[in-house]
Amino acid sequence: MIEAPDLEADLPRATAGDIAVNNLMSACERSWSQFWQARERPGIAEYIVEQEHLKAQFLGDLEALDRLDALADELERVDPESVRTALIRAQVASMAHRFAEATRCLELARSRGAAASDVTRLSLSIDQACGKGLEAVLAARRRTATESGRLEDLVPLGALLADLREFDEADRMYQQALRAYQDVSPFAPAWVCFHLGALWGELVPEPQASRAAQWYRRAINYLPCYVKARVHLAEILLGDGSTPDARALLTPVVSSGDPEVHWRLGDVLNAMGTPADADAHIDAARSGFERLLGRHLLAFADHGAQFYSGSGNDAGRAFELATINVANRPTLRAFEQAHAIAVGAGERQTASRLCGDAKAHWGKTAAFDLSSLVTCRCDLVE
């Protein structure tokens, strides 16, 4: 049994999560009202992007991507030649993992005279997400984090270090980010705690479930409605046999609309011996994923592939989505996922090709030495 941790750790104090969420919802509603009254008003569209991103990230409100696409389309209609429109389009496309489009929009913004700092910030995020030029990205991340010491700069550095399999240093960066935090909003520290949970629960070669659960609980303590933290903690509790606790975590956030909630709740109910109820939630997850994939394929290809390779029980669909994902963002984790799914689907030649491509992209990095692909075969391609 995984025990709930003592949450009296040395963590930043913050506004109560429910209050912060209510404030966010009210502020976002006001911002949209102001936008429709004066679309070219400086700063308002940028503020909406930030607010909608928080709603998607923490509340599981994935329709935020649709609203942001509508925002970008409206800016394109009323102010098509501005730097601002190009930058916002780049940011919205990046959030939806449309990285090729985001890069084109960013280049357009650069040609229109966008500030170098704005271009560099988003360019680094795109390159990091795609596993491109990571030595340069790492150097830039280290330099920025050292100069500012801010949470906003330490967390991306920690995430990159985790991608590079430098787990202990990633942990130090996240812990430093928590110590550096001076604000009272709960969103940022909850975000860091979630990263720490994922680091020790999913990314390290030998996951430490109790350590990860502690961090997920802390994220939820900051933001009780934090959908992804609840989902990830429920997975740990399910693995530990604590099915009633896992169900209690997931039930309050079913209304979020995130199909992962239905997916994991289906797994929990199946483990509790109620297969009919479990099947209903798995069907809801399948419908939810297909709806999202139809609108934002690249944003959900990786999670869709994971679902269909497991509880979704469709190896062909999983293989299709995993290959789309790795083509869009050839990170080491994407290669690992696609290779494992290809093997499971009996696609031996594709698996071999992916192995070769992964070694070509990542074989000279220290991270590859810790990858499951280091021993895979690349000799089956005709």
Give an overview of the whole structure:
The chain contains 19 helices and no strands. The protein has 382 residues and is mainly α. The chain is globular. Among the domains are: 38-130, Serine Threonine Protein Phosphatase 5, Tetratricopeptide repeat (Alpha Horseshoe); 226-291, Alpha Horseshoe (Serine Threonine Protein Phosphatase 5, Tetratricopeptide repeat); 296-382. Helices cover 72% and strands 0% of the residues. The chain has helices at 17-37, 44-59, 64-78, 83-95, 99-111, 116-130, 134-148, 151-163, 167-180, 187-203, 209-222, 227-239, 243-250, 259-271, 275-295, 297-309, 315-328, 332-344, 348-362. The model is unreliable at 1-8 (pLDDT under 50).
Q: Let me know the largest β-sheet.
A: none
**Given the helix and strand composition, which structural class is it?**
mainly alpha
Q: What CATH architecture of the domain at 38-130 do you see?
A: Alpha Horseshoe
Distance between the termini: 50 Å
Describe the structure in brief.
This is Tetratricopeptide repeat protein. The chain is mainly α and 382 residues long.
